[in-house]
Design brief:
By secondary structure, the protein is mainly alpha-helical. The protein has one domain (about 50-270): MetI-like (MetI-like fold, Orthogonal Bundle). It is about 75% helix and about 0% strand. The protein is built from twelve helices and no strands. The chain has helices at about 1-30, 35-40, 50-100, 105-115, 120-130, 135-160, 165-175, 180-190, 190-205, 210-215, 240-260, 260-270. The longest helix has about 45 residues, at about 50-100. The two termini are about 40 Å apart. The model has no long low-confidence stretch (mean pLDDT about 85). Keywords: Cell membrane, Membrane, Transmembrane, Transmembrane helix, Transport. It is a multi-pass membrane protein. This is L-arabinose transport system permease protein AraQ.
C-alpha cells in the first residue's frame, strides 16, 4: 500500500503515456494488415486475414516506385542538412560563447527571433525563384538549415559554456590556430550535444511535410511524407495502403528515438546548470 501511495503519480504517467503513444500505433498496425474493405471501417476489430505483405508491395511499387525515390530524397535531405547544421551551429556557438563583443546582443536577438518568428512562405519562394533554387533539393536543404539553425546554436552554446577556457588557452600556447582549437580540441568534446542535435534534427527534417510541399514540387522530388497523397483523394481513400505507408515511414524515426533516447536527454540537459 505504501508503495502504491508513493508511486501512484508515476503509474498514472506511465498509463497516460501508453494510451497516448501506443494506442495510435496499434491502430496503425491493425489497419495496415487489413484489406481495403475492412480498413475502411476504421475500427480496432481484429482482421479476418493478414494482408500486410501485399499492402507493402503495392505501396512500394505505386506510381513507378515513388516511395523508394522518396526515401532516397529524404535521406539525402536529412544527411546533408544535419551535417551543415552541426558544423555551422557548433562554430557559431563556440564564437558566441568565447568572444564577447558589442554585437553579441544583436546576434542573440536574431537567434531568438529565428525561433519565434514564423517562416514567410511567399517571400521565401520568391527568393528561391530569384536564385534558381526553387523546386531543387539543394534549395530545400538551405531552407532546412536556416529553420533549424537557431535551436542548434542554443544547444551548442549552452554546452560549450561548461568547457573550461583553459583548454583553449593551452592549445593556443602550444601553437594551435583558431580553427585547430575548434576542430581538434572543442569539437571532439561536443559529442553528447552533437548526438542530441543529430537525432532531434534528423527526425524533424525526415518527418517534415510543409517545407517539401511548399518548396519542392514535383513527383521526382517527393519526400516520404508527401507519398501519403498517393492513397487518398477527395472521393476515395485506400486506408489499408495509407496506413501501411504511414507505418513504413514511421519506423526509421522510431528506431532512432529508441536507440538514442538517453543521449537525447543527456544532450538537452547538458549546460543547463553551470558549475
Amino acid at each position: 500500500m505504501n508503495f502504491l501511495r508513493k508511486y501512484w503519480l508515476n503509474a498514472v504517467a506511465v498509463v497516460v503515456s501508453a494510451v497516448v503513444f501506443l494506442v495510435p500505433f496499434v491502430f496503425i498496425i491493425l489497419t495496415a494488415v487489413k484489406d481495403k474493405q475492412e480498413a475502411a471501417l476504421l475500427d480496432f476489430a481484429w482482421p479476418t486475414g493478414f494482408h500486410l505483405w501485399d499492402n507493402i508491395v503495392e505501396v512500394i511499387t505505386t506510381r513507378n516506385w515513388m516511395l523508394v525515390t522518396a526515401f532516397v530524397n529524404s535521406t539525402i535531405l536529412t544527411v546533408v542538412s544535419v551535417t551543415l547544421l552541426v558544423i555551422f551551429a557548433a562554430m557559431v556557438g563556440f564564437v558566441l560563447q568565447r568572444r564577447k563583443t558589442k554585437w553579441n546582443g544583436l546576434i542573440n536577438f536574431l537567434i531568438l527571433a529565428g525561433l519565434m518568428m514564423p517562416p514567410a512562405v511567399v517571400p521565401t519562394i520568391w527568393l528561391l525563384q530569384g536564385i534558381g533554387l526553387f523546386g531543387k533539393l539543394h534549395g530545400l536543404i538551405l531552407i532546412e538549415v536556416a529553420y533549424g539553425l537557431s535551436f542548434s546554436i542554443i544547444l551548442y552554446r549552452a554546452f560549450i559554456s561548461t568547457i573550461p577556457r583553459e583548454l583553449d588557452e593551452a592549445a593556443i600556447i602550444d601553437g594551435a590556430r583558431p580553427l585547430d582549437v575548434f576542430f581538434r580540441v572543442i569539437l571532439p568534446l561536443l559529442w553528447p550535444v552533437t548526438v542530441t542535435n543529430i537525432v532531434v534534427q534528423s527526425v524533424a527534417i525526415f518527418n517534415d511535410f510543409t517545407n517539401p510541399l511548399y518548396y519542392l514540387p514535383g513527383n521526382a522530388n517527393a519526400t516520404v511524407q508527401l507519398t501519403l497523397y498517393n492513397f487518398q483523394s477527395q472521393y476515395n481513400t485506400a486506408y489499408n495502403l495509407l496506413f501501411t505507408n504511414i507505418l513504413l515511414i514511421t519506423i526509421p524515426p522510431l528506431l532512432v528515438f529508441l536507440f538514442f533516447n538517453r543521449q537525447i536527454v543527456a544532450g538537452m540537459t547538458a549546460g543547463a546548470v553551470k558549475g
